Amino acid sequence: MINRSFWEHALEDLANAHTDVSFVELADLLSIDVGGAAALAVTAQRLGTGRIVVDRPPPELERILDMFWPGLSKIEVAGR
Known about the structure:
- There is one protein chain.
- The chain is an alpha/beta fold.
- It has one domain (4-78).
- 46% of the residues lie in helices and 18% in strands.
- It has helices spanning 4-17, 34-46, 59-68; strands at 21-25, 51-55, 75-78.
- The chain has a 3-stranded parallel sheet with strand order 1-2-3, with helices on one face.
- Strand 1, helix 2 (34-46) and strand 2 (51-55) form a beta-alpha-beta unit.
- Helix 1 runs parallel beside helix 2 (34-46).
- The longest helix has 14 residues, at 4-17.
- The radius of gyration is 11 Å and the shape is globular.
- The model has no long low-confidence stretch (mean pLDDT 92).
């Protein structure tokens, strides 16, 4: 089980190490809520350039992103 603070710290580390494309593999994540998706979206929006590729996320992530952040091109969902 991942808690929010761990997730937010991991995203902060990702943003600090980001160059052009950052990959986040979420195959073992069973579920994500709007708060977790928001942390991902905000991180992506703060990136100067490039994008985050999310591999095999829970199905609700793509629906949440489409609902609250439609057209956010800085996140690419792959491996579905």
